[in-house]
Amino acid sequence: MTTVRLMTERFFLSMFAAIVLVGVFPIAFADVLVPVVPGNQLSVAVQPQVTQDPNTQIYTYSYTISNNPGSLQEMWLFAVELSPVTEVLSSTSPSGWRFGVHEDQPIASWAAVEVGQLPADFIDDGNVVPSPFNLKPGETKSGFSFQTFTAPTDGAFYAQGFKKIPQVSGDVEELTDAGLVEPPLTDDSYSSLTTTPNLLPYGGGRRPAVDGFLVFLNVQKDGNVFSAPATIIVKFSAAGESVDRSTFRATLNQRDVTSLFVPDTTFGGDLVAQFDFQNSSLAHGRNVLLTSVDGTVPDTIRSATDVDRVSFDVQN
Questions:
Q1: Which of these CATH numbers, 3.40.50.11900, 1.20.1250.20, 2.60.40.1170, 2.30.30.140, describes 3-196?
Q2: ∠ CA(214), CA(82), CA(87), 5° rounding?
Q3: Residues 260-287 pLDDT 10s
Q4: CATH architecture, domain defined by 211-314
């Protein structure tokens, strides 16, 4: 008898096994060895904390998670919703957990992947082993955090309970042909709302066809408060537009500061500028930054200029 391992979508960067197929029903050519178990048999409470660096405007998102004492499962995976263009700059994880950003959907997650030392009499049955770092019912764990420029708003989180991978006897190709698929993470987890980086970068908002020529990664439309030096990060072609970067121009308080924008090798943008009181026209209080860049309007051959104006305050 051949044991077929049918893996649910336990995605997690490229280090996790590519997930295979699943959803098992009694069928003539296969016996169910390990049945499909829902991953939502738990209830968790999430306490978010968001802080912002006054110089770079980088947000740090931190989460403390409590697994309800009445939960029927340990939590092995915790995920939060991102905006489609969120750039994660760095992350931290609790002991035994690892962080990753999903390539197939705007989600970041932590998973308990370390299993520690297995007992000498351990028998490998071809299935997954629960990690001793799983969040057990009644436990609370912190240390889940990451940094990004994306501003906070309400977004979904997903907490999945640990479960064995379904197993059947039979031929995996026959099961593949039968189209037996287990629900994805977003449908097979306990889910609710928390604070997440789920806003799009600010691109002006006045001319949708060209607003993606240039976006500000760390400046929103209103309420930006910096400490000097004020760091501004821009990104071109937010939605893949054709942009002539050589036409980029910038003024700060009506003085040209184009030369202060240099290639960004740190923050995930294309250009970055640091304005202080000595090297630019940065002022205490309100400042106005005006940028422009030329590009081609999507689905046309027509050229246009994206002109963006943002204001921010400097408090020191």
A1: 2.60.40.1170
A2: 50
A3: 999 998 888 899 999 999 989 999 999 9
A4: Sandwich (2.60)
